[in-house]
Every structure is written in structure tokens, then in C-alpha cells.
Amino acid sequence: MSLQLSGEPYSEYVKYMRLGKKEKEELPVLDDYIEKNHVMTVGEVSLGLVQIPMEQIAGTKNSGRGVSFSRSFYPILSEKSEFAQKWMSLYKAHIEEGIREPIKAYEFMNRFYVEEGNKRVSVLKCVGAVAVPGMVTRILPARTGEKENRIYYEFVDFYRLSELNDLCFSEVGSYAKLQRLVGKRPDEKWSDEDRMSFHSLRLRFKSIYEEKEKNHPGKTADDALLAFLKVYDYSELLNLSISELKAKILKSREELKLREGSVPELSMSPEVKVGKKIDILAHLLPISASKLNIAFIHEKTAETSAWTYAHELGRQHLQKAFSDEIRTSCYDGASEENIGQIIEKSIADGNNLIFTTSPPLLKGSLKAAIEHPEVKILNCSLNTSHKYIRTYYARMYEAKFLMGAIAGAMTENDKVGYLADYPIYGMTANINAFALGAKMVNPRAKIYLEWTTLKGHDPFETFRKQEISYISGQDMITPKLASRHFGLYWDGGDYPVNLAMPVWHWGKFYEQLIRRLMKGAWKEDEISDETRGLNYWWGMSAGAVEVICSKHLPIGTARLIELLKNTISSGDFNPFSGVLYSQEGVVQRDMDRTFSPEEIVTMDWLAENVVGYIPAMEELVEKAKPVVSTQGFEGKA
User: Fold this and answer.
1) Judging by DSSP bridges, how do beta strands 57-60 and 376-380 pair with one another?
2) Which of 212, 239, 250, 628 can bridge 632 by disulfide, Cβ–Cβ 3.0-4.6 Å?
């Protein structure tokens, strides 16, 4: 029995029919898309009964089902048609009883295409339903190297663990990062309670975020949520009220605009192009401050850590260079857990410029910077983009190239050992520069790469088995743990003989950075690109890194190193120039091209003459994981 052409079902049908007829694009058909684009598929997987998000229903499975709807699943046939009568009956039934019968659909590339139940989808879309139950079959595309395809297969892996199908990321590696940020191991499955808790937070975040941020091309609300979880702990957010959550989102709005995986803008030199000197008080200090008070926050102490020792030498150099103009202080024993408290104490002590000197302190530094916009905070790390803090690092790969050239010239069996600690961005540039330097003076040189942070592994045993006596060890020494096993050394006799060592001149780095800021460069350095942060990445030209050769080095080799050092410092030579080969093949074919700074920072391959590999996260000791999780390579660490 047909419905009368009046009442709510009729008026609703006419309203949405008019909207549908205004849409010019047709409803997508999956079968047609696969055929026209010659898409290779590799099988189907039944997902069973799934709650399908309405916003991810993209079209129909076959063309015969789609002629009655617009692209948005609005009805487009006459209100007097039989189709319209059925639509109105279904609408009336939904209002009175609700639609419960599952539809049948296919999922392809995280979009759903309806095979049976198109009218149910149309009605539910028109009434604003969030999801519809459906028996779903997944169609798997062939794997390719394309970004969209890689992201999809990361989603497939994530879905096996979480059964969440409504997340949409725009960058590779995001699903794995989410798994980690919610406190899950890489292979850990989600419980029903896990899904409910996350779903609740996501919906609250999304409603607040989309209310404030309307248009960010290429960036999804889930991208913003991932950025938000990098600032605030997941467990903390679960217990926040709507008003508390909204306050944190508003405070961190600039951070949420950053594009996941973006390389920061790199400041390659301390030179300032500001026309006149600007008083630092106007740019760095609150009105009531009379002096620049600088805090250095370290993970360890100078007595137990070579890294901290080098930064402490830098702090002392800085204090001496500026005498009464500044005051410096240091805070030891920082960790991911207590960094927030230490920063709060340093601010309470009157510090208005803060350096946190290692990558694991990044998250806490960012959170503190959002809460204290009156304080400038910088973190010593590489390849991380943030808006509320800036990062800094030294171009150590330049020094490593020189060290490699020395090793290549000295080795008697064409074998050189290389000790690395963390598989993070910047480390591979160091390794590859060393390998290229060795190859330049000795085409037969092989670099045997060993990691000091691998579980249950003794790299020196490998060196002994391979009869390797020339080794590139740790860059710095620790006062209380003094050893001759640092820099490039020969270990073929009764005791090691040091040949050369790279030096991190943090004192010169900090001095030039402060002088730069005193010339007004903090404001000058602000970048217009809202999707990127800023990193100060200075090298030999700034005196930030150096190579010191010992008396044991042959005079000819020392002269060669001095010549190479001068050409690198002047900018006339870059180790990553010309034809380059990785372990997998050609990386760059152009003889006249030089890698950009961004390409060097994000390098995730090893040179062809390196014997070794980049380890995955699960192969590392626990103490290495905080550093690698912050700055490791996607899919490799």
C-alpha cells in the first residue's frame, strides 16, 4: 500500500531529492573504478558484522544500484516513483522502530561500497546517523610503493589489532605511532574497553577540533589527534571533562597544524640578516626581568655521561663568554617522567630561556612551552617539527666524513669498524658520510657497522672475528669513565692508539645562538609555514663541530684532512654530492647534484660499502627505546 503524498516522509524525501539533483557528480561505483583504472587486487577477506561509519561510505559496489542516488546518497528519482514510495516507507519505519537489518558492503582502501541496502544508507545519511551495521568483505589491492597504498596496508595491520575502522591518517607511520601513544606494544590487541575509551576521546576531540579548525588541506582530524597525543599523555586525556579538553586543544592549536612527518625548516648558519641590533629584553624577557637567565636541563650528570659533559662544557663556555650579561644554571637527572617538574622548578627559579639537552626530554619540553608561552624552550634533537619550542643539533656528518677518510687511508686490510648507538635520524648521515670518506681515499674500504644498543650483543666480538683493528668509537669521553676507546683509534696492540676525534663544540654553538638571539633573531627566525617548525643545524662553518688529529697520524694524511676540512667549512664541498649508491642500489645518478639538507636529515638508507643494517625497535635494549621512539625511522625502528 502506497503512502500519501504528504506528511513528514514525503516532505523529507522532496527536501533531499532537491539536494540530490543539485549535485552534479554521480555516485562512485567500485566495480567501474577497478576496471577503468586497471587496479590489481590480490584477494578478499570477510570482516563479518562491522559498524560502518557513514562518512566512509563512498558509493555502491555495482552500477545498477547507484542510478537512484546522488553522490551523497540523496534520492534523485521523482517523488511519485515506486522507488520514492519505498524510500518513504523505510524512512517512516526508521522513525518509528529504527533500522536494524545489516547492509552488505565491500571495503576498499578504507572506503565502503554498498551492495545491498542502498536505500537504508540513504535514509540513515539523511537523518544524520553516525554508523550502520553491515556484513563487510574487504578487497585487498596489490601492494605498491605509493604513499596511499602504504598507508592503507598500515591500516590493515592496525585493524587486525584494534578493529577500529574509522580512523583516517594522511601520513605513513601514523597508525604505528597511535598504537604506541595509547600505550600498546606493536603487536598488542585492543580490548572492547580499549576501543570504547579511545572512541569516546576521539569523538570529543574531533567535535572540538572541527568546530575551531575548518580548513587544513591534506590534514585530517585524526592527524591533529595524533599530534595532540604527542603533547599530552593518553591516560591523562581520558579523564578530562569537555571543558578541560577544550582548553588544552585551544592552547596547543599551533602544534595541531603541523603536518605529521614534516621536516623542520633548517637554519644552516648562525649569520643574522637583521639590520639593527634589537634589545634581547624586548624579545626574550618579560618586562620585569633584568637579565637573561638560562637553564640547562640534562638527563644525566657530567661525571657519568659524555653527552652531558660536553653540554656542561658548553654552558661554562657560555657563562664565561657573556660574564655578567647572563646567568646560567644546570639541572641533572631529568627523565620523560619528571621533566615537567624540573622545568617548572627552573622557571620558578627565574629562568626565562631553557635548553633541554637530549631527545627524550622533547615531549615534556613541548608541554611546558605550551603552558608557559612567556619562556623560550629549545630541545637538542633533530628532524622534529614543533611550533611552541625550537630544536637544535650539530652537523656531525661533516666531521664523520673526515674521520672516514682517515680510516680509509690507515686500514691495512680494507676493514674499518664503526660503533653507533641509536638508530635515529642524523645517525645514518654520520655513518654514510664516514663510509663515503673512507671510500674516497680507499675504494676497497668496507665499514662494519655495529650497534651498542642491541640486546645481548657484543660488537667488539664481531670486530675481533673480522680482524678489525681500526675502529670509530664513541665521540666523547666521560671524566669518571676515562678510556682511550674514543674517536678513531687503532686497537691492534697492547693498548689503543687514538688517531683523531670529532668534537662537539657546544660552547661555540650556544654562544653564537645567544648572540644571534640578542640581535633579534628569535623573531626573525619565525617561519610562515604553519605546518613546519624550526631547527638550528650548524656545522663546521659555524665552529660547532671539529676534528682533532693526533700526532700518530701521518703528515700526508693530516694535510689531506686539513684540506678537506677547509673545503667543507667554506661550503665548496658536500660529502653527499654526485652519484651515490646504497646497499639496495643507486640513490642519486646526477653527477652535478648535491643532497639538500632535508634529504640528509631524513636519510634512512646505508651506503653500499657499509656491512650491517638498521635495527628495529624490538631488537634494542630498553634504555634506547625512548630516544628511538622520538627520532627513529618509520618502519625501521
Assistant:
1) unpaired
2) 628
Number of domains in the chain: 4
Residues 85 and 174 in one domain: no
Q: What is the mean pLDDT of residues 607-620?
A: 94
Judging by DSSP bridges, how do beta strands 111-116 and 103-108 pair with one another?
A: antiparallel
Cα–Cα distances (Å) from 604 to 30, 396, 397, 637, in that order, read 37, 16, 14, 10
276 and 379 inside one domain: yes
Q: Where are the beta strands (DSSP E) in 56-204?
A: 57-60, 103-108, 111-116, 131-141
Beta partners for residue 303, in sequence order: none
Residues 328, 404, single domain; the answer is no
**Residue 311 is placed in which grid cell?**
653540554
> Which are the contacts of 110, defined by CB distance < 8 A and separation ≥ 6?
56, 152, 155, 165, 168
pTM: 0.83
Instruction: Return the CA Rg of the chain.
Output: 30
Residues 498-520 as b/e (b if ≥16 CB within 10 A, e otherwise) read bbbbbbbbbbbbbbbbbebbbbb
Strand ranges inside 522-624, DSSP E = 534-538, 545-549, 580-582, 585-588, 610-611
Pairing of strands 326-331, 292-297: parallel
Q: What pLDDT digit, counting tens, does each position of 441-462 carry?
A: 999 999 999 999 999 999 999 9
CB atoms within 10 A of CB 635: 12
**Do residues 194 and 297 both lie within one domain?**
no
pLDDT digits (tens, 9 = 90+) for 36-45: 999 999 999 9
Sign of the Cα pseudo-torsion (215, 216, 219, 221, in order): negative
How far, in Å, are 169, 365, 517 from residue 277 at the CA level? Answer: 45, 29, 10
Q: Is 74 helix (H, G, I), strand (E, B) or coil?
A: coil
Q: Tell me the residue type at 205.
A: F
Nearest-10 crossing angle of helices 7-22, 118-126: 100
pLDDT of 632 over the 90 cut: no
pLDDT per residue as tens digits for the range 81-119: 999 999 999 999 999 998 889 999 999 999 999 999 999
Same domain as 174, residue 298: no
- Which grid coordinates belong to 70? 546522488
Is there a domain that residue 636 lies in? no
Query: Cα(489)–Cα(478) distance, rounded to whole angstroms?
Result: 17
Cα–Cα nearest to 284, from 390, 357, 380: 390
| Interhelix angle 82-96/7-22, nearest 10 degrees | 120
